[in-house]
Amino acid sequence: MPEPRAVYLETRGDIAELVMNRPEVLNAENWQLVRDFHAALDEIGKSNDIRAVIITGQGRSFSSGVDLQSLSNGELKIDWFRAFDEGVRRLEQLHALTVAKIRGYAIGGGLQIALACDLRVATPDARLGLPAVMEALIPGMGTYRLPRFIGLGRARRLVLTGELIGAEEALRIGLLDWVVAEEQLSEKVESTIADVLKGSATAQSFAKRLVTASFESDFDKAFAEYLEYQERSLASSDHERTMAEYRARKSPRG
Q1: Average pLDDT, stretch 8-33?
Q2: Which of 47, 69, 80, 179 shows its CA 20 to 30 Å from the CA of 244?
């Protein structure tokens, strides 16, 4: 009997849900999870219809990070760490809106996946952090992304101490966007996506690229890319439709 997929994808209309599926180990990341993560991203990339992707974990946690059993057995070498962070980068660069739906632990690689998403919604029991130093490791490209979210000082604290913080503190310092009760989690994620998808897919996609690259480019390069994307937005059918709707609202009624 084939082993269950460690990541699976469910699609409904223009929304996909990418689910990490190792609940027995709090969705800890091993080779199978990384391979299945890439496979799910391949599937998303083949679709022109998907406008939003929810990333979540099966069971009571988002993800507890690297699988310590696999790590201690010597199964996870530098090629695994490269493949994992390449997957996180692919997630970060998706054109679709990405929303992390978090309960329980989002630590280590779990937090790195959440940081690669556009928005993060969590329950009050969420615990976040980068405890890699406790395993004598570097917390991946979390060292690159975390300071951009919460500032250098706070990032140093979390990276160097490996401490975990609760949902309310994470919300206060900018790691989370919303904290809602468990029974409201799915509703909040769905309503947030519905609100965002009212906007122009073209403009949102270009704006997302610019924001993602804002810490990686100098001003002149960012300005040139902005002008290119703005010109393409102005020429899009989304913009034409939006302006037509505006004119219709403003036209005098007989």
Answers
A1: 97
A2: 47
